Structures are given as C-alpha cells and as structure tokens.
Automatic annotation (TrEMBL):
Protein name: Phosphotriesterase-related protein
Species the sequence originates in: Clostridium frigidicarnis
Keyword terms of this UniProt record: Hydrolase, Metal-binding
Cofactor-binding details, from the entry: Binds 2 divalent metal cations per subunit.
Source organism, top-level taxon: Bacteria
Binding positions for a divalent metal cation 1 per the UniProt entry: H11, H13, E124, D242
C-alpha cells in the first residue's frame, strides 16, 4: 500500500443541519470540537484538503468552517448553491434562475455574505428520487449559468444515485464542460452498467458514501471500483464519506472520517488495484477538477 500524501476528501460536511425536515437532532452536525479532532487525525494520515458541500439553506457557516480549518490544519473549500426538495430556502421559490445564479456568482467572486470567504464550488445541488422537481430544475439551470460565468466546478446530489442522465441533459442544454461536473452518491445506485454509461459521457462520478453499508456494502463498492479502474475510468472517479450526523463521529460510536483511509483503502489494495488508480481517485482527479 503506497503512502499517499495530499489526499482530498471530495464530499464532506463540516457542519450541516437537516434536522428540521428530518425531525432528528442527530442530523444537526454541529460538534465543532469533535470535528477539529477528527480532521487533525486526517491531516496526520495525509489528508490535505476537504471539499465542504454544505450550501445555502442547510446551515452553511463559512466562519465555523474556517475555524475548523485553522485549528485542524486541513484546508477546507466552501460551496454555494441550493440542495434539493424539501430542504430549499424561501428564496428559491421567490426568485428566478437568473437571480439565483447572481447569488451564487457573488458567493464565488466576492465571498459569502460579509466574510470575504469565497465559495469554490457550486454544490451540492440535487434532485429527488423519481423525478427532477421544478424548483430543483431551476437550481440546476441557475447553477449552470453561474458555472459559465465563474468556471468553478459543479457537484450534484443524486438521491440513491438515480437520475444522473437526466441531470446531464440539463448540463448539455447549457454546453457545460462535463469534465468539471461531479455526480455524487453514484455508488448508491448499485448498478455498474449505469455507472459505466455515465462515465462514457465524460462526467465524473463520486463513490462518496463509503462506510454506509446500510445502503450498499463496502465489499460491493470495492468490486465495482476494481472493475471500473480496470476499464480505464479511474481518472473520472472521486471518493469521500459524506458524514452528516453526530452519530458518525468515532467518539459517538460511528466510523469516523478516517475510515476511508484506515479500512476502505486497504480493502481496495487487497484486490491488487494499481497505486495509480487509487491516487487518481483520492488526489489527482480533484486537483484537476478544482485546479488545485
């Protein structure tokens, strides 16, 4: 197993609050001290950067994130955009796509509110399980317009990995460079032929629910990644854990952020996957997409 430095977690949440809609206080991720300690551990294991996907309407707090970054030593990039139904704030219903795009552009160019901290990605903007709801389509189109103006990557949420091709249709309407787009949670689809069909479009996909075995087993994730890498797709795949609950922390009995490095990567290496493929998925691809 190669000792890889500058590992990048492609999709995490330093803080997020989905508890109102879900009616579950566990979904209010606000344990700052625990987060700092876990991020310090990640730094000691080669993680240099985390992409934070908490956006507008779900308790984004860039000053909180900045404090965690400073105290842990891990670089954290912030996001702009709007999540999905039923988590969208009032402004999504009141404003048109051009106005929403202007808000995203301002976050990217000038900074979030009066913090001076700039967003680096439009994400995670999402779609529902069975269809793209009208407000979700509005956000996708606004995200496309903001991407055209700023050039930053777009990261989407797919519910259980579904509707990837439907999202791509919207991106194609705006001639978005698909090499700058990541479809999240595609490992949850459980369908490797579907994964291949998305990758063949030139888009990036995320295996970013590592450790969430109640959805898909990590043994399956390993087998899918082994096959995809053997077919030459390792330069279009990124990885993460998407931790969103207090119960996910090690101290609270969860797997913790370092599970990806401590447990999942060794599982991959046991399949004799090449070092270059692993390095693509946890370092090189995010560097390319974000120009780091």
């Amino acid at each position: 197993m190669k000792d890889i430095k500058e590992i990048i977690y492609a999709h995490e949440h330093t803080t997020i609050d989905l508890s109102g809609v879900k009616k579950d206080s566990d979904c209010n991720l606000n344990n700052k001290d625990q987060t700092i300690e876990e991020f310090k551990e990640l730094l000691s294991k080669g993680v240099s950067t985390i992409i934070d996907m908490t956006n507008r309407g779900i308790a984004r707090n860039v000053q909180y994130v900045n404090e965690v970054s400073e105290k842990s030593g891990v670089k954290i990039l912030n996001a702009t955009g709007y999540y999905k139904e039923p988590f969208l704030p009032k402004e999504v219903y009141e404003l048109d796509e051009n106005e929403l795009a202007k808000i995203m552009v301002a976050d990217i160019i000038y900074g979030v509110e009066d913090t001076g901290i700039k967003a680096s990605v439009i994400g995670e903007i999402g779609t529902s399980l069975k269809k793209i709801e009208p407000m979700e389509e509005k956000v996708l189109q606004a995200g496309c317009k903001a991407q055209i103006e700023t050039g930053v990557p777009i990261v989407t949420h797919t519910t259980l990995g579904k509707l990837g091709h439907e999202q791509i249709k919207t991106f194609n309407k705006f001639n978005i460079d698909l090499s700058k787009v990541i479809l999240s949670h595609i490992d949850l689809s459980g369908d490797i032929e579907y994964m291949k069909s998305l990758l063949d479009k030139g888009i990036n996909i995320a295996f970013d629910t590592v450790g969430k075995n109640n959805y898909q087993s990590d043994e399956n994730r390993v087998e899918w990644l082994k096959e995809l890498c053997s077919l030459g797709y390792s330069d279009q795949i990124v990885m993460s854990m998407d931790i969103t609950r207090k119960s996910h922390f090690k101290e609270n009995g969860g797997l913790g952020y370092s599970y990806l490095i401590d447990k999942f990567l060794p599982m991959l290496y046991k399949t004799e996957i090449k070092d270059e493929h692993v390095e693509n998925m946890i370092v090189n691809n995010i560097k390319r997409i974000y120009k780091l």
